[in-house]
């Protein structure tokens, strides 16, 4: 029998508990795999990072920056560390603690960079941690590229602060060796009338789990998040996004596209958008598309939208997962295009919307070459 309160209405369903936010790893529960945040994630490869094992490996970090950009290593108690990111799980908290500080990149206000800032991280095995902080001053313009290669069991935090009126393009490439494990918390804050264009490109690694989050620090902010992932046999690639709208008249767009092939290829995309009660005038839309190229691959896609105000400019989401269209392949082959080349053209076209956002030509060419190589490996 239903229970009612004094008003005669049944009680509202209990809201899920908010995640713990703390830099203390012991403040976060050890995941079991039954939690919503971990239910898709294989935990065994992450055990050393969940336990906070002392680093026994090496990851080389080098930052190439144009003149005028300051690059330094700062202690963990520097006010820039934690300005944008407060860990919501043990792995991110341990990354903060075990990194022993952060690489801080500062772009002065009103600076317009014509060349990208490139942070190259190369793992050389073992358990590793790092923390990167990027501060872009008011009315500045900058492109930041984060390039992951090599192998490691790696937990890496990234926090990017986009100052008022600034414009930042951020690209993170996960091009790991096949045995790498990477858990990354990437947090972005967008200032008043500022613009963020963030793209995550995941190609390699045994298990890669990236958690991008966006919040707004003033009205008029504009954030676009895009992603491309190619999940091969035995790989687990997970992108778990959260966009939080608490300021007025802000905009967000999320577009992630993935292709999967091979036995036990598994991709996960979670897109969460929260619109607060005071975030009137919000305009948001998120979409995920997955292309399954062979049998044995699995794509999980979960868009979520929570709206606490009725005064929004627009809010929506969409998700679809489908097989490779044999009719399109037949159409191209009927016009004299060999099967392998036709298949590559279809996949290139599928990824084109995301690739066109990458304004670093060498990086765009590298990603497309990697996709072609994956397709060629199965005789496409």
Automatic annotation (TrEMBL):
Ranges of compositional bias, category Low complexity: 10-19
Gene name of this polypeptide: sufD
Designated name of the protein: Fe-S cluster assembly protein SufD
GO biological process: iron-sulfur cluster assembly
Family membership: Belongs to the iron-sulfur cluster assembly SufBD family.
SUF system FeS cluster assembly SufBD core domain residues: 123-350
Pfam families linked: SUFBD_core
PANTHER family: PROTEIN ABCI7, CHLOROPLASTIC (PTHR43575:SF1)
Record's compositionally biased regions (Basic and acidic residues): 21-35
Signal peptide start-end: none
Location of the region described as Disordered in the Swiss-Prot/TrEMBL record: 1-35
């Amino acid at each position: 029998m239903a229970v009612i309160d004094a008003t005669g209405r049944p009680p509202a369903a209990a809201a899920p508990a908010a995640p713990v936010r703390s830099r203390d790893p012991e403040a976060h529960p050890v995941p079991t795999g039954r939690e919503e945040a971990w239910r898709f994630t294989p935990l065994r490869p992450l055990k050393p990072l969940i336990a906070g094992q002392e680093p026994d490996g090496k990851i080389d970090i080098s930052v190439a920056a144009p003149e005028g950009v300051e690059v330094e290593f700062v202690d963990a108690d520097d006010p820039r560390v934690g300005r944008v990111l407060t860990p919501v799980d043990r792995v991110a908290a341990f990354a903060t603690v075990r990194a022993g500080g952060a690489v801080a990149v500062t772009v002065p206000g009103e600076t317009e960079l014509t060349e990208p800032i490139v942070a190259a991280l190369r793992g050389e095995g073992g358990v590793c941690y790092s923390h990167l902080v990027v501060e872009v001053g008011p009315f500045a313009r900058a492109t930041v590229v984060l390039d992951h290669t090599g192998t490691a069991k790696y937990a890496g935090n990234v926090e990017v602060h986009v100052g008022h009126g600034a414009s930042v393009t951020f690209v993170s490439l996960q091009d790991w060796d096949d045995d790498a494990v990477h858990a990354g918390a990437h947090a972005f804050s967008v200032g008043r009338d500022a613009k963020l264009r963030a793209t995550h490109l995941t190609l390699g690694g045994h298990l890669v789990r990236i958690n991008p989050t966006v919040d707004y620090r003033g009205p008029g902010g504009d954030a676009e998040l895009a992603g491309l992932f190619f999940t091969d046999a035995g790989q687990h690639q997970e992108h778990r996004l959260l966009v939080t709208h608490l300021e007025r008249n802000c905009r967000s767009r999320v577009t992630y596209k993935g292709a999967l092939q091979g036995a036990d290829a598994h991709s996960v995309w979670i897109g969460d958008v929260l619109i607060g009660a005071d975030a009137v005038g919000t305009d948001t839309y998120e979409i995920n598309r997955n292309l399954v190229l062979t049998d044995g691959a699995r794509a999980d896609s979960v868009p979520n939208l929570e709206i606490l105000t009725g005064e929004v400019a627009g809010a929506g989401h969409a998700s679809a997962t489908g097989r490779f269209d044999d009719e399109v392949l037949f159409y191209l082959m009927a016009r004299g295009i060999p099967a392998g080349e036709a298949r590559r053209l279809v996949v290139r076209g599928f990824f084109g919307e995301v690739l066109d956002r990458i304004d670093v030509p060498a990086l765009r060419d590298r990603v497309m070459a990697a996709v072609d190589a994956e397709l060629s490996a199965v005789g496409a």
